[in-house]
Amino acid sequence: MEDNLSPAAITENLNTHFIGHKVIYYPSLPSTNESARKEAQWGAAAGTVVVADEQTAGRGRLSRTWLSPKGSVALSVILRPNIAYLPGLIMLASLAVVRAIDKTTGLKAEIKWPNDVLIKGKKVCGILIENEVRRNTLAYAIIGIGINVNIHLADFEDIFPIATSLSDEMSKAVSRLEVVRQLLMQMDKLYLDLPNEDIIYEQWRNNMVMLGKRVRAQSGESVIEGLAESVGKDGSLYVRLQDGILSRIVAGDATILRR
Ligand code: BTN
User: Which ranges in the chain belong to alpha helices (H)?
Assistant: First the structure.
């Protein structure tokens, strides 16, 4: 199976307007987000992609680490949209992953707020978006995406109970090249919809796994439990607390409670 993530393989007949027109590949890298940040500061064009076969210091959300052994996909895309589109950009990333997984494997993935991607309740993809804002202008946004593609999760006992991979779900290897190419094409398509925020918002909300379920949500030091009622166009999660108050969480993490 084709598993070569070289720029030539990724860009061959890639049907995009700008995403993936330039691809920078490394066999091994501490973090594609860190490398993309440097490229962005040196003036890399919007749509530039940094991809690695393996990361040695992958970064996760909320100062966590992200495991990216060989067989996974780790890539970062440099974008330079208007700052008003930042909430849409966060939604776009997880939606593009859901669509790319469907196109390459037929698996139905779901989004867990804010932008984890799950299959049958287990995490298959994490997304880390890092921006630089200068005087109310978005200098750049880095969309970092890590997908467990060909990883045997039973070999990673710490995350085995909560994570899965495309190959574990399919019981066979999956083409990382096809996953990457689909991901870039889906991101490019969705990017064109950014000015029409309702399109992306509604699809993001419709693919959200936790609405109507009891959740524990954490934002900074504060932890709340309640019913995940809705998500807002700005990307916030609304949780109905036991006393009836509707709490809005702008940033943080949430887990579905199984009771
Ligand atoms: C999370 O779920 O905590 C987010 C994980 C994001 C991981 C990706 S892999 C590519 C990019 N480079 C990084 O160092 N992190 C992101």
Answer: 7-11, 32-41, 86-105, 166-170, 176-192, 197-206
